[in-house]
Amino acid sequence: MTLPVRLGHISLSFHKASALVVARILEAHGYAVELFSAPHEAAFEMLAAGEVDLLSAAWLPSSHQVYLDPLLDQVEKVTVLYEPYCIWGVPDYVPESAVASVSDLLSEPALDRMDRIIQGINPGAGISRFSAKMITDYGLDSAGYVFKPGDEKACFDHFESAVADKKWVLIPLWHPQFLHNRYNIRALLEPKGLLGSKDAATLIMRKDARKLVSPEAIEDLRKLYIGNKELSALEDNLRRSAS
């Protein structure tokens, strides 16, 4: 009897959605799969400690390279699952003629109408680190803008509540993400490049897991590609089925 494959993911729903796709491939090869989740830094700590065999997925290089670098000698990259990138976005009813760029947040009519709370997710996320820096580097703090880290529920509820009332709101977000499957969210121009580059969401495997996962299963994992649009839809379906 083979040991179960321990598959880790960051404890956000779109990471879980990608992990479930990976799990299906492993299960098709006859493996039992155990899922483990943790916040950003802790997920990589689980991988480093050998508490999981694979991690779906590391965003490289912008968001998660800092967490992966200390364990590069222990792991290998299996495949790129999708190409994520971070944005600051506004709902499409906010006129582009009024707010097209981050710098427009310091001018009217945004100064009069935009919610000053920029509600994010947990502080270890790349989008959270980038957003906290943007507040100071763009001088948004001088106008009363505040980046507030939290969790998925706080971030998404803040946005959806504002949209329901057609309020002007800004969300620190990323592609792929289920909200793009439900709303038209326009990314603001960000000329300083503080939101990082487009990443490669990479399935990571511990080298010592090769004795556990067959070459045939690894080869099928290497062929796996989900893509941003498909993953946004998968996460949306996952959330709807759980509600």
What does this protein structure show overall?
By secondary structure, this protein is of the alpha/beta class. It folds into 2 domains: 5-83 and 199-242, 3-Layer(aba) Sandwich (D-Maltodextrin-Binding Protein, domain 2); 85-187, Glycine betaine-binding periplasmic protein, domain 2 (D-Maltodextrin-Binding Protein, domain 2, 3-Layer(aba) Sandwich), CATH 3.40.190.100. It has helices spanning 13-28, 40-48, 65-68, 110-113, 126-137, 152-164, 179-182, 215-222, 228-242, and strands spanning 5-10, 33-38, 54-60, 75-82, 85-91, 117-119, 146-148, 171-175, 185-187, 200-206. The chain is elongated and about 65 Å long. The protein starts with a strand and ends with a helix.
Please write out the topology:
Layout: E1 5-10, H1 13-28, E2 33-38, H2 40-48, E3 54-60, H3 65-68, E4 75-82, E5 85-91, H4 110-113, E6 117-119, H5 126-137, E7 146-148, H6 152-164, E8 171-175, H7 179-182, E9 185-187, E10 200-206, H8 215-222, H9 228-242
Helix pairs in contact: 1-9
**Major β-sheet profile:** 5 strands, mixed
**Strand elements, count:** 10
| Overall average pLDDT | 96
Name of the top-level CATH class of the largest domain: Alpha Beta
CATH architecture of the largest domain: 3-Layer(aba) Sandwich
Radius of gyration, in Å, reads: 19 Å
Helix content: 25-40%
Question: Per CATH, what is the topology of the largest domain?
Answer: D-Maltodextrin-Binding Protein, domain 2
H and E string: EHEHEHEEHEHEHEHEEHH
Assign an overall shape: elongated
Low-confidence runs (pLDDT<50, min 5 residues)?
none
The fraction of residues assigned to DSSP E strands is 15-25%
How many helices?
9
**Beginning-to-end CA distance, first to last residue:** 36 Å
Strand order of the largest sheet: 2-1-3-10-4
Which secondary-structure class do the elements indicate?
Answer: alpha/beta
CATH superfamily of the largest domain: Periplasmic binding protein-like II
Task: Give the total of domains.
Answer: 2
